[in-house]
Write a structure and sequence with these properties.
Elements (H helix, E strand, L loop, with lengths): L2 E5 L3 H13 L3 E6 L2 H11 L3 E5 L1 E2 L2 E2 L1 H10 L3 E5 L15 E3 L4 H12 L1
Parallel strand pairs: 1-2, 1-3, 3-6, 6-7
Antiparallel strand pairs: 4-5
Length: 114
């Protein structure tokens, strides 16, 4: 069982992702809707990996990606805008397309956790 950080500003979408994660036998360490919340959870919970929405309202998730990369924690981006929406310097990271499809989330998590 892996502990996974969810960074998503849409509550219903975050809830769906948390349900998928639990169905796969993993645990969500929490959901963050802002950069500040995500960094607090990251430092407090030390997740095995993370899924980051590229856009958090008016914020971008780049500072979270930088902190995760520095800590050596695997992460994937989530976006409905394709690979072009990924921040510069992180275009090689895994991406999960929105709307979420269970099998896509499962495949990316399996890659990050292995």
């Amino acid at each position: 069982m892996a502990r996974i950080l969810i960074v998503e500003d849409e509550a219903l979408i975050a809830e769906l992702l948390a349900m998928y994660i639990e169905e796969m036998g993993h645990e969500s360490v929490g959901t963050a809707a802002t950069v500040e919340q995500a960094l607090l959870l990251l430092n407090r919970e030390h997740p095995a990996c993370a899924i980051l929405d590229c856009s958090l309202g008016r914020q971008e998730s780049t500072p979270i990606a930088e902190a995760l990369a520095k800590a050596g924690i695997p992460f994937a981006f989530a976006t409905g805008r394709g690979h072009d929406a990924l921040p510069e310097g992180f275009k090689q990271r895994p991406m999960i397309a929105k709307p979420y499809i269970f099998e896509d989330v499962q495949r990316v998590l399996a890659t990050m956790i292995s």
